[in-house]
Amino acid sequence: MAEQKYDAVVVGGGVAGLTATIYLARAGRKVVMIEKNGECGGLVNTFSHNGYKFDTGVRALLDAGIINTMLKDLKIELEVVRSPVSLGIGNEVLNIEDKSSLDDYRNLLKRFYPESAGEIDEVLRIIRKIMKHMDVLYGIENPVFKNLKRDVGFIFGKILPWFPRFLLTVRKINRMNAPVEEYLKGIVTNPSLRDMIAQHFFKNTPSFFALSYFSLYLDYFYPIGGVGRLAEALQEKLLKLGGEIRTETTVARIFPDEHIVKDDRGISYEYKNLIWAADLKTLYKISETGKLPPEVRKRIEDTKDKFLANRGGDSVFTLFLEVDEPLESFAKIAHGHFFYTPSTKGLGETHKKELDDLLNNFTKAGKEAVLSWLDRFTALNTYEISIPGLKDPAMVPPEKTGVIISLLAEYDLFRKVEEAGWLEEFIGEFEDRILKVISGSIYPMLKDKVIHHFSFTPVSIEKRINSSEGGITGWAFTKSMPVINKIQIADRSVMTPIPSVYQAGQWVYSPGGVPMSILTGKLAADRVLKGAKAGLK
Ligand SMILES: Cc1cc2nc3c(=O)[nH]c(=O)nc-3n(C[C@H](O)[C@H](O)[C@H](O)COP(=O)(O)OP(=O)(O)OC[C@H]3O[C@@H](n4cnc5c(N)ncnc54)[C@H](O)[C@@H]3O)c2cc1C
Question: What sign results for the dihedral spanned by CA atoms 484, 489, 494, 498?
Fold first, then answer.
């Protein structure tokens, strides 16, 4: 017998779960959102430490025609500022201000790689073309968040003129799905130059998605108080609309035949519909399907096998620094969101074949080989550096600066080091190297002004969020992506073969990220509200 009965149970309190719950509550459904951690937001989170506020996950937000449309629809006012981006190589820094900065980017690359001038022009021509595609794709408030029955003007004035261009654009971008590394090989002969353009993307990122980033750099915005303010604002709205939240509660078992979930304390919740807005491998691992009809069970088993055969995408290592130096010193160097590559050499095979070899011979290779690899990995990489105080000065104590430095990192390496019993030591070695590289290049004041530092690893992300392989935007990019990856059929991404269960969030559509997590949260809520039959594809 269930102790609590709901129209809908939503599992996971990241932005996907928050969105789904809000829309169900707004429609008058009795809904509860169950979240494992003490606070909501998942990978959209800001925390305080020693008077400094740091963003744990995403560093700034991209609208994509989704976030602001949703906020407007929900009448949520979020105070935001622009979050300008800088790009840097060696000791050159380019502040991106508008579309004309693309010319400065071209010139920057040409100064470092003069022999590749023609190839650089070609890459920039493609980036410009993609920027135009992005203007079409994101150039309209997403109709999923509009009340089309009431807003006929929007249909005739916006959607109808836009739709044919949208379809044409989708056709064009679907032709650019090859991994960016491979795609660039056809244009750029110098491997170091290829690395400068693409090494800060996830491995095998579809080329369209990777090369669209220049256009996205212009669109980043930052909520006053940190990115976590978005999750907090959604949470406040959810409660105001009568939705319920259970934090520090993990869903441990699902019984689809009885329409019941059980949490880690053994409490049962009965649902008419369930929206799973968390890691998808877990959904299938904890679902008790034994009493479902054999044909349904078969579909569930097939889907489960498909998910278990895939992995989460690259994870991230993040170093948080509390620095005894005023914001002004950092403002002179770069904007508060900075992609910085200290060396022009590029990672080459360091994060690919060299790492694979290391992982395959981990025990034999030993600690020294791992640390020597780490020397190269940290020296040749591209860093994402965020300084929240440069966007909102209230994020730091007076005369101090909080700095977040991150780089993509392989979960398996951290897991193996942990199994070998020296994870803490490895983390220390990682932190020391990052500090040495960054203070030896772009921010010399980090040499002796760091008061306190700590870091998050792929393993700690996995533990906190329950995210397979510490994945931060969903699945690794592989040839056989286990979920929908075409925008024109994104509405199907929320379906599961489990009766009355829908899915939302970064694991259900690729490429994932904040806007698509929010969009799928809304799509899942819409399916529930329409009473769509579970299992329909
Ligand atoms: C460093 C970093 C940089 C990023 N940069 C960008 C970027 O530039 N652009 C972009 O779009 N995206 C970016 N992202 C990714 C983006 O933040 C995520 O894709 C998005 O926030 C995912 O939201 P979600 O709601 O789908 O999942 P999550 O945020 O993972 O939320 C899932 C929630 O479910 C909870 N949970 C898990 N299992 C259970 C269970 N059994 N019971 C109860 N609760 C459970 C978790 O605790 C978590 O709160 C970045 C992420 C990181 C970490």
Answer: negative
